[in-house]
Amino acid sequence: MMPPALRRPSSTRPPAGLVRMRLVATGMLVAMAVTFLVARGLQPLHPAWGFVRAFAEAAMVGGLADWFAVTALFRHPMGLPIPHTAIIPRNKDRIGDQLAQFLRDYFLIPVVVARRMRRMDLASAAGRWLANPTAGSKRVTRGASRLSVEVLQALDQERLGGMVRGAMVTQVRTIELSPLLGRALEAAMTENRHQPVIDGALRWARTVLESNDSIVRAMVHDRAGAILRWTGLDETLANKIIDGLDKMLAEVAEQPAHPMRAKVEEALAGLAHDLQHNPEMRARVETLKLSLLENPAMQQWINGLWEQARHAMLRAARDPERLLAGKLGEMLRQLGQTLERDARLRTTINRFARRVAVGAAADYGDVIVGLVSETVRGWDAQTITQRLEHAVGKDLQFIRINGTLVGGLVGLGIHAVDVVL
User: Which of 110, 111, 109, 103 is nearest to 372 (CA)?
Assistant: First the structure.
């Protein structure tokens, strides 16, 4: 798709400076024509008018020739379909192809890209900006912020969200979770990081027991015999059971060497081993994983994750200064300081950036060339012609002025030589 600004002219009015230069060049041409006519009539009165006539005549010819040459670049002079005129609009597509090929031959060569990238120290520049982003250009920050917001809002959210969700689900499907969970549990037990989990589970169990003691009492009452209920011993038995369970949980929580805790750790160690090495356990975990992925609630949760991430990226992009003032900003500043200090890390990053750029030039050079060529072909010929003429037309009018003056001087010189001879 071509840039909107080049589909049709937003304004066909040339710049004021170009209009002035056109008037000057055309005025000089008209002045030379009038001077030629006057000098031709007065030449019999005095020989000096011959020099004026020769200057004006040659200047007029030179001005007309340069006017024709300048006009022929952009349009047919006087609307006449003269061959080899209107060069730019007639050859727009070929110019685009040649420009694209020029980029391919002289800029998108991997060797050239590697040489250019070797001179650039992207890691140092990134480190300086990350270490002190407020010292950098706020225009860059604001521009990047606006660009990020526009890109995020312009993307098809349904399609992009579906792609992200699909990628997440596909990635989870391809990963066998059971060995990962087993190794994670084994590592946690080795570093004794599972103890807080056990303590939390014990506190939760005591809370549940306290909140549901009426259920325990009802169970004991229902299962007790008529004699126990008649004598009221069922209530006493329920109290003993509840107190005993609560006391046992409290002792397990308070005593690291409690036998019950050892049993729990033994069960966890067995679970970690089975998750890694037991085919049946691994199959059950895999089946559970697939069932969860197919569950509508899980899919809705994944959708929510993507939406939260997208909104977070939009908030961050809209307010980059606030983002840089938070924890993420502190992490980025530490990264910048590390880049400034660590020469080996900078070398590694620069080498990686160079390889990425060279790989992109090698893999996508033809795509970029095709994009440039197709973009130029899609431009409106009239619009691009006017843009080019307005951009360089002022200098082209100087060519007309210089052609008028140089032509006049040449004519004057030829006339002088003719008089002398």
Answer: 103
